[in-house]
Design goal:
The complex is a heterodimer of chains A (about 240) and B (about 325).
Chain A: E1 3-7, E2 9-11, E3 22-24, H1 26-39, E4 46-52, H2 57-66, E5 71-75, H3 83-94, E6 101-105, H4 116-124, E7 128-138, E8 141-147, E9 152-158, E10 161-165, H5 177-185, E11 188-192, E12 201-206, E13 215-217, H6 221-234
Parallel strand pairs in A: 1-4, 1-6, 4-5, 5-11, 6-10, 7-10
Antiparallel strand pairs in A: 2-3, 7-8, 8-9
Helix pairs in contact in A: 2-5, 3-4
Chain B: E1 3-7, E2 10-11, E3 14-15, H1 17-33, E4 36-42, H2 50-55, E5 60-64, H3 74-88, E6 92-96, H4 99-112, E7 115-120, E8 122-126, E9 129-136, E10 141-147, E11 152-156, E12 171-174, E13 186-192, E14 206-210, H5 217-230, E15 233-236, H6 238-242, E16 263-267, H7 273-276, E17 284-289, H8 296-299, E18 302-305, H9 308-324
Parallel strand pairs in B: 1-4, 1-6, 4-5, 5-12, 6-11, 7-11, 14-15, 14-16, 16-17, 17-18
Antiparallel strand pairs in B: 2-3, 8-9, 9-10
Helix pairs in contact in B: 3-4, 5-9
The chains are: A alpha/beta (about 240), B alpha/beta (about 325).
């Protein structure tokens, strides 16, 4: 199947100290991994598209080093791109391409919005599934397992289609030296774009409300437990 | 007159508590603005639940009584919600941030030409603007975000507001709907439910969550026992879901469910941000971990430094005594 994965460069939110290091969004990495596994041993491409600043080339190279075929880098500088604008730009990109499956992460780790995937599917008129934890090709049908509210839903999607991926799907490969060298020779089609106006705007970023400092109990297990139960009952009033 | 339209999610024949939480706050806003409050119920039992919607402030309850909505599938749900949003033409659409809502929110916004403020912790109407606060960067920051678009969708994290009863007229309005399944590019083959999901995690008042410290089936048995004594739902960190000890539906965190119960037991959970993003708003947090430096202790109301295999048998026995005396 011909895949294209929409990827994003995000701050490394999982690091305990913010250093400004930028990484490939973990959910997108799972999407790239899954496409590579499905296409293993075939000549079908796994292409990439990324919207972001010029410095995001580094992240594209990383995904190419995992084994992706070629990439398009839509360069948009500055802040203010919301999901609506991203979906509009990606929809314009896909007008000139025929893919069987478009994949993307279910959300990006920095904003956790989780909207761009289904927005893009709707703009392209494609059937879609979100929060996928498993993918399997069955002829020209893609079988998707998605994590729903009350269990896992197993869906059959006719291609062409779009799927957003959870990181519970797989553990993305770490590129080997051979992949890193090969990625340097792969083509990145870089284009400058002008985003449409966003519909939402971040005005301020605040620290989340802190919690009241707690009580740490140490010592004999039986004493700690007795003290905990006493406090849950008399102090916190939650029993 | 402007209105707020609340999408009510139904599970196991009941309106989800998180939907009623969001609607209770929407009702407060609607009364302050002099707007009407409308609710949407979809599915074969939709009309039966209209009374509950009325009791939480709905002036009108828009229903589509079609069994196609009884199990989740995005294409018909999108068509149904599009019909309802167009029939109601509200200023604001409010929903609980469930997996079913997340599945359609973006596509519905494109279809209805709306702006979206997803997964918010709070929201308000400020003149022409809809303003919200939403956790970002794995809940380490809170982004105040706003939209002046004429139609705005808001999805609300569970536990953000209290459920408050408020009498509305609850007038039932049937919305015409036809859906041609032949146009679908997708079909639902089956739903695989995991065993032991007795209490719904995102709705529970007490949650017992297990981490890597709950190493094996005997540890899981202790967690199950604590949950059964306290009437809790069982949650888990991603690490312990990956081992297969707990089902994926139990996962709490940035990738899993967001919970904010009155009482949260974190058993053998270190407290990585990916996990705490999903539980940091719980009212009382009890952490049990043998590593005194585990980051979970920074959040804990009560922290117990010790091995859960030593502590849980004692805790279960003690709680059993307290519960039996009630």
């Amino acid at each position: 199947m011909k895949f294209c994965v929409c990827i994003k460069q995000v701050p490394d939110v999982q690091a305990s100290v913010q250093t400004g290091r930028m990484v490939l969004n973990a959910y997108d990495a799972s999407a790239v991994e899954e496409a590579l596994v499905i296409n293993e041993g075939t000549d079908d491409p796994v292409d990439l598209v990324l919207i972001g600043s010029a410095s995001a080339t580094e992240t594209i190279r990383k995904a190419l080093a995992m084994g992706a075929s070629e990439a398009t880098h839509l360069v948009a500088e500055g802040e203010g791109l919301d999901s609506h604008a991203v979906a509009a730009l990606l929809a314009a990109h896909f007008e000139g391409h025929a893919y069987d499956v478009i994949l993307t992460g279910k959300q990006s780790q920095d904003t956790d919005a989780g909207l761009a995937g289904s927005m893009l599917a709707e703009r392209l008129g494609l059937p879609y599934a979100t929060n996928a934890v498993g993918l399997r090709a069955e002829g020209d049908t893609l079988v998707v397992t998605r994590q729903g509210d009350a269990g896992q839903e197993i869906l059959a999607l006719k291609t062409p289609c779009l799927v957003t991926c959870s990181n519970d799907m797989n553990n993305p490969r770490i590129p080997a030296l051979k992949g890193i060298m090969a990625a340097k020779r792969k083509q990145i089609d870089t284009r400058s774009i002008t985003p449409p106006g966003p519909r939402t705007r971040v005005t301020t970023t605040l620290e989340p409300p802190g919690r009241e400092p707690g009580v740490k109990l140490e010592g004999e297990a039986a004493d700690m437990v007795a003290e905990l139960v006493r406090r849950l009952d008399a102090e916190a009033n939650v029993l | 007159m402007s209105s707020i339209l609340c999408l009510l999610s139904v599970q196991d024949g009941r309106i989800k508590r998180s939907s009623l939480e969001a609607m209770s706050h929407a009702n407060t806003l609607a009364r302050a603005e002099g707007w009407s409050l409308e609710a949407v119920l979809l599915g074969s039992k939709a009309a039966d639940l209209a009374e509950t919607a009325g009791r939480h402030g709905a002036d009108r309850v828009l229903v589509i009584k079609d069994p196609v909505f009884d199990s989740h599938l995005n294409a018909p749900l999108l068509a149904g919600l599009e019909a309802v949003v167009k029939a109601a033409s509200p200023r604001l659409v409010v929903a609980a941030s469930t997996e079913s809502v997340k599945d359609v929110l973006g596509a519905l916004a494109v279809r209805c030409d709306a702006a979206v403020l997803p997964d918010v912790a709070s929201f308000s109407v400020q003149g022409e603007r809809i303003v919200c606060e939403r956790p970002v960067m794995a809940a380490k920051k809170l982004a105040r975000t706003e939209s002046s678009h004429p139609l705005v969708f808001v999805s609300v994290r569970s536990g953000s507001y209290e459920v408050k009863e408020a009498q509305g007229a609850g007038t039932v309005v049937d919305v015409p709907f036809q859906f041609d399944a032949a146009t679908l590019g997708l079909t639902l083959r089956e739903i695989v439910k995991s065993a032991g999901d007795t209490v719904d995690l995102s709705e529970a008042r007490v949650v017992v969550a297990a981490g890597r410290g709950v190493r094996d089936a005997s540890g899981k048995a202790l967690v199950d026992e604590l949950a059964s004594i306290t009437g809790a739902a069982i949650g888990a960190s991603r690490a312990v879901v990956e081992t297969g000890l707990f089902p994926a539906t139990a996962q709490i965190g940035q990738t899993g469910k967001v919970v904010s119960p009155d009482l949260y037991f974190a058993v053998g959970i270190s407290g990585a941000v990916q996990h705490t993003a999903g539980m940091a708003n719980s009212r009382v947090i009890v952490a049990i971990n043998k590593d005194p430096d585990a980051p979970i202790f920074d959040l804990a109301t009560y922290g117990l430094v010790g091995d859960c295999f030593t502590i849980l048998p004692l805790l279960n026995a003690e709680l059993k005594k307290v519960m039996a005396s009630r």
